[in-house]
Amino acid sequence: MYSEWASLSAQITANSCGAQCFSVLNKFPASAGREVVVSVVKQLGTNLGITQNAEPSHLVKDEEVKWCMDVICFGLSLPLQEHETIKDCVNVYCEWLTALHPQPRISVPKPICEDANLYARQIINHFHNLFVPRQGESADTIKRQAVLCHRVLRTLQQTAQISLVMDRQTWDTLLLFLLAINEILLAPPTVKDDVGDQLCERVLSVLFEVWLLACVRSFPSPSMWKTLQESCAMWRHRVALVDQWNRVNLALTARLLEFCYGPAFPQLKNADEDGQLIPAGMSNDCVAQTWYRFLRMIGNPTALCSPHIISKSSHFVQWALTHEKGAETHQHPCLQQLPQIFLNAMKGISSQVDAFLGLSKTSLIGLTGGGARNAISSSTTTIAASGSTSAAAVPASAAAASSIAAVSSSASATAVSAAGGASGVGAGIPVGSASVPGSGGGSAPAPAPTTPTSTSGPPSASSSINSLPLTSMGAGTELAVARPKCNSILHVFHEWLFEAAHIGGDTWRQNRKKQACEASKRPSSMIMEHRKGSISLSQPNSLNDPQSLPPTLTIDKYESGRAEAIGTLCKIFCAKKTGEEILPVYLARFYMALQQCLKITESRECDETLASILLHSSDLFRLDLDGINVLLPGFIAALEIVLPDKDLKLKTQSMAFNRTELRRSAINILLSIMVLPLHYQSLPIRDLTSETSEKIFTFIQLKSRLMNILMNALQVETDAQNTHMLLGGLLLCVQDAVTFEETELGGGNASTAHLSHNSSGGAVQHHEANLLSSDNAHALFVRATYLVCHRLISSWKTDLNVSLAALELLSGLARLHIRETDALECKRAVKWICDYICYQCSRPPPAHSKDLHSTIVAAFQCTAAWLMQHPYLLQDKDCLQTVLEVVELGISGTKSQTKGGDIPKFKDEKELKPASMRVRDAAENLLTIILEQVGYFPSECGPESISSLLDEVALMKHCNSMAPATSSSEQAIAKFKYFVTENSTILALLEEPLGNDQDPQPTVTLLIRGPFGRHAWTMQLRHLPRSKSGIKYHAINPGRPIPMNDISQRPECEQKNFPEGVDKVQPCVADYSIPTIEQMREQYGAGGIRDLEAMLENQSIHEKLAWAEADTSADSLSHAQECVPPAVCHEFHAARLFLSHFGFLGFESRNPHNPAESLGTPPQRPLIVLDTKSTAFAADLDRLDKLSARTHDTVYVFYVKSGQTSAQQIIGNLTEEQHSLSLDPHFATMLQTLGWPVQVAEHSGWTGFAHNSWSLKGTPEEQLRTGPVANDSLNFNGSQKVLYWADVCSEIAFVVPTAWNLRHNSDSSDGGSVSSADQVSGSSNVWARGDGDTGLAKTKSRNLSLELSAAKEPVPPTRRKGNVTKPTLLAQAPAKIFLVWLESYEDYLNFPLEDLLAYTRTGEELHTLQLPRAADCHVIFVHSLLSGLLRVKLQGPAGRMSFATPLVDGMVLSRRVVGNLVRQTALNISRRRRLDNDNYQPPHVRRRLKVQDIVQKYKMDLSEAELLAHLFQRAI
Question: To which H or E segment does residue 420 belong?
Fold first, then answer.
């Protein structure tokens, strides 16, 4: 760097030797000289004003002053026993130096004041005598000498700072003097507690600080810089040199960053005293020149690894020659500090790199990714416009002035040029280039907390519930946006870092052997020139026999510094931006260095180098680095050492690592490579060094090793956040394997042999017979289920976040469609989850907290997921009993049978004491799902609704008695009778049969509105089953039989009134009791008999006339028509029959002794009649129907093109057709996997907008109003289409906002929306609480419930009494979830979240206590890598439960699974948010409360008689 310039080393030597010969007193005996000095100096000292008032000096001539100075010069070299005399000499000179001050002291002689610079130079040279070490002095006297030296150094430093008259010659003299005293004190080998050891740090700091002053006042010449560099090389065995070097570099770097990158760049925070190092007047170009020269001042730090080089100076040779037993120069004890010095130098460079990346060195609290150092730093060379990648040497030019332009606000940067000239700035400095991105208008975010590395405290012993610092779950610290390119930083530091990374590696050993071989061919000489031989800035490493090194200096002792270097390289390469190019030569050297450092030792220990690589390589596999996958086998081998080991043994020397952070970083690497085997499959991975094909792996061969690492890591992990990340990775693996087998392999089982093939000679042995060693989808499913259930029961049950993550994973596993699913495995999983619920419920009362109940609620939801996806489990008697026992436990607080042999306790004998209302609600929900939904979802209505799509209006349209044209909700409701049963279910009864029913049966049509939805039933009273009664009623009339014309012959016979032979019977007395006609005539006379006969004759005549008349009429038998059956009777009181048959009209009284009933509300009738005449009744019913029985969420999808930062640009990507054509085609593919497209006009579920969700659609009028549907494939903004997905418990809409959303929101936000206005009134606004939680189901009549009677209000536990009955507004806004596709990953830093909120309103915001804020939004960023994989970045509010699985910050996904995992993550985020909300009420509770509200408003207080009378009244 200064090869063309002469060194001033000879001048330093001359000065140091000459100072001792200056005085004429040296010509006399020492005693005579001492006497002269004592008498003269004592007299001079009395005038200084120390002990008495100062007087003007009597020395008025130059000769007098020079004579006195001659005496003082000798006095400074006196032995230390003359301490008082030496002290007076020092005092005199220090006073006289004030001649350079703006106000000299009164005691300074006049000649000195007149020519201050001349005399100051002589005084400075004379001071040399004071610093010369005295041989054989005691420790006490050495301390006295040190005190005087401190006084001199302080005076010189102060003079340099405040003097305005110092000329260039004086500055050079001062600098050369400081170099000389450093030389004399520091160049010899370190001896503990000698004057050099005591003054080491002080003389170095004064040298550097005065040198920095000189750079402002009188920039040192290149010769001075060269001399400084040569001198520093002689002091490298001193720890203080590197420490002070780091200090200065740190201060200079802080100033350099300010003007290079602007105020927005993260500041490098230094200690306050270090901030004062840089003189105030130093210009920007001076800072840059000084910074680069200081950076190169100590040469290549890797020379510190070679004691032979460090000990080449003549001082070490002299020590070796005078050693008693004879020794080599490199065996001096002080050299044992070299490994620590090397580490400090590397830490300095590392911190320098941190500064340029925007990582503040004081930020030591972080999560994952690159780490900040507590050490100090150094920085990049120079600032070049547009980041040129070639290093240029600026030619010397005496005429050119130095020019360094700071980065202007126009975001341009000019190159630093170094030139000599009037200012004395030296030229010939090789200038690297550091790209300075514009920092004008953009604002860089504050640096994120970074990872603790060597300075972090001891690892945390175990995790606790609060051990999840979820500020940013996962990987990556936030680097400065305007950071220089990787190439620019590497141009400056690559030589040092790459060499240091290879220290002790195979290539290093090969090079050393090669150099030793070459050296053996040259004649060796021990004698060398004093200076030139000592400074070998670029000489090869040790050429001597390594066996001669002491054990404390073997090459492995330098591993801490090597670890720092490779860690720094990892940080640099992890700072690559999207689309940034890194020179292939740097990538190649980096990969070679990493491969050397990743070599696993035989002991399979994790050493510092391995730990450092893992700590700083979190992002390495997700940055599109060319060829990075060649390192995959090496990294997998490293992960196999770190992750599966429960008690990881770290082989450390000088660095301390936090094991939790190390594991977290390793997990991040694991999450970024999990999908590679199935992505690249049989693609080979070549070995970097081996030319043979023996070591070639294919990607698919690594899959089983990755799976084993993941499973084993999960088995031993104790930290909550690490476990959370591993669980997310586990679901990703299983999901990816399942989807891969479905799509790529057609779902066949042929994949097993291919996928489970393991590499021969791998670290993991493969057992074909063992199912667990296979890694097909089914085997992974079994392993994952078993492992997670086992750990959930054993060690995770006390941690909220881990429990939730495990239950989310189990729910995700339940949804997987694996062809060979083992029913036994599924049954075991459900049993484990039920056991988990039982354990949590049985914990003692002090443990029952909100968090505990959240885990129980989540476990009920997980159980529902398993039963819905595997309905055959309920066919298993044991499984059914287990699940129902847990449901009973949740609802009532106890089981009926605690043990198998116990007598069951009936529910009317049990006291209802659920763990909490939330637990009871979740259990009720699960019960309803079991009874109504398992095996039947989705219904004929489709998954978009679990309620019937029929309401009163729709039913009346099918009714005979009502004209469809006049149907309105009020008219339709008037036809129904409304009753409420169990205080939670509204029955609407229609007695008219529907129009398509020709069956003359008593028919009633019911609309049942309960907590779990709206259901329509039609019931008929039949005396025979349909199979037997259908023919009878519906057969065609066969008609009358044809009469037979042939008349049969009837024999004539006499009719007898008595049997034959009656005359032969002898009559008795009784026979004569009945009189004969003759006897009657005799008795009553003939007149009466004649009257009777006349009456008979008249009657006979009348009958004959009547017959005659009948024969002539149309109704006569001859004219008779055919018989027809009577008309079918439609007049049934079917409602009354239904209510009676189903037991609703029993007015039995309650049993007051029943404990369950005594806790309930006062006795009430099983049936309450509603008054439907009120006009508001229809509106209230509509509001009830608008309360969904499922939770609903909305995800907003955005596409961000590279560099876009404004909301208008981002929205425009999907609004304008020409823009949407240029989108990444994979974005459209991802959208299609999120949900299925639905037409809003025909959709009866959640649409993403409150005003048109859950309404009955599809009428011709509505379709006409909506107009034609556009064919735009990405137009899912909610105006006509949205993406929709639903399961039995939840609905989710994916909206892709466009400009329409902003207009639509502004139109409807003024309350113009009818439904919005309706919902504000009364307590009906609870529906706007947004998200539901515990899923949905439909209610059953009370004999199917585990409660005695649901007619009572649910009984709250005592500690939360009254909380449930009053609906309240949501205390926190509904979760806003954004899914953002990034073309450039760095754009997530500038995503305009606040501005985009205006496009994401659902209409529910009116009903929350606060509007959604940007800080509360959850954002899932997805960035497409060049490999076709996707990188995930999660952003969200800090909180214990904010981040849900399966997606984890930093995870790399395959496109096959992105839609599924994003959807699951969004649902889980919303579920967690609801669990964490104290005021949240599940959907079925809100519906129940709404029913009770309707009851209070419209109930009719009827007595039993009035109720029965009401039943006989017809509806209108």
Answer: none
